[in-house]
Design goal:
Elements: H1 2-33, H2 36-51, H3 57-69, H4 74-89, H5 97-101, H6 131-149, E1 162-165, H7 171-178, E2 187-189, E3 192-195
Length: 199
């Protein structure tokens, strides 16, 4: 039995190696045909990007999608990302993703616009067990920002700026709804309900 499993493992490893080799062949060819100065430029650009990615809007958008909706399917994460971008376009919030995500951070623990920013825990998704999910969400964030930049972003929430998990009670949400600043009935997408602001 052990021999069978060993053979299966070796064959699988060989198959994966062949697939990776075929996929990376054009990249290797392109790399070899590049002039030395272009290779160095690409290498430096990649290093700079990974060292300073926290200055990019995609990083903060992905971080919000990760901590607010990483256990959800694509539709749920996408909807959360749309809410962040809706904040950016709304006159009540700053006009950039970084500032929107950090909104309310000076109000103290539990009072941020996005709860994960005030939970007292470090934001290090790459050091946790969900590293693969983090990479996937980052790619989705870049896609979402790209669609938004060219005016092709579809917003399933209908432009809302508030959401909460459907299975959690929020005193703040309850207060806002009682005082008529938010719609009482929310649209559910994934594990969150989305509410319109009443102005």
């Amino acid at each position: 039995m052990k021999k069978i499993f060993k053979n299966i493992f070796v064959m699988t490893l060989a198959l994966v190696s062949i697939i990776v080799g075929v996929i990376t062949m054009p990249i290797k060819w392109l790399w070899k045909t590049m002039p030395w100065w272009l290779r160095w430029s690409c290498a430096i650009a990649m290093i700079v990007f990974f060292l300073f990615e926290t200055i990019t809007p995609a990083y903060w958008l992905a971080l919000t999608q990760y901590y607010e909706a990483r256990d959800e399917p694509f539709a749920g994460r996408y909807a959360v990302g749309c809410v962040v971008l809706n904040h950016v376009k709304h006159h009540r919030w700053p006009n950039n993703v970084d500032s929107v995500v950090h909104a309310g951070i000076n109000r103290g623990k539990g009072k941020c616009d996005f709860s994960y920013m005030c939970d007292g825990k470090p934001e290090k998704p790459w050091s946790q067990n969900h590293w693969g999910t983090w990479v996937n969400i980052k790619a989705q964030a870049w896609l979402l920002l790209g669609l938004d930049a060219i005016g092709l972003r579809y917003d399933p929430t209908g432009g809302v700026v508030y959401y909460k998990r459907y299975d959690r009670y929020s005193p703040w949400f309850d207060k806002e709804q009682r005082e008529g600043r938010m719609t009482k009935k929310g649209q559910r997408i994934g594990a969150h309900e989305f509410f319109h602001l009443i102005e």
